[in-house]
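Annotated sample (chain length 95).
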Amino acid sequence: MKMKSELTDQLFEAVLGLETVDECYAFFEDLCTIKELRDMTQRFEAAKRLKDGENYLKIAKEVGLSTATISRVSRCLNYGEGGYLAALERMNDKK
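Output written by the structure step:
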């Protein structure tokens, strides 16, 4: 399934317009269920840890994800569109 659409562009433009972490909390709490937001944060944490060289079992135990989900995150890191890598690199640049 292709994600790119005018409606998805609108959503991403809205996210890009947010200026603070508090604004992001407000927006995502309105947009997502608690489970959806938790799932996204766990996947992003898995991406960060995979990039840092941690193994699947340690990530699964500490983050609470299945190894299948961690494998999917790993595939995205290695063969995806580069979204995780871009976000992680920008976060590191800000430190």
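Annotation: The two ends are 35 Å apart (CA to CA).
Annotation: The chain has six helices and no strands.
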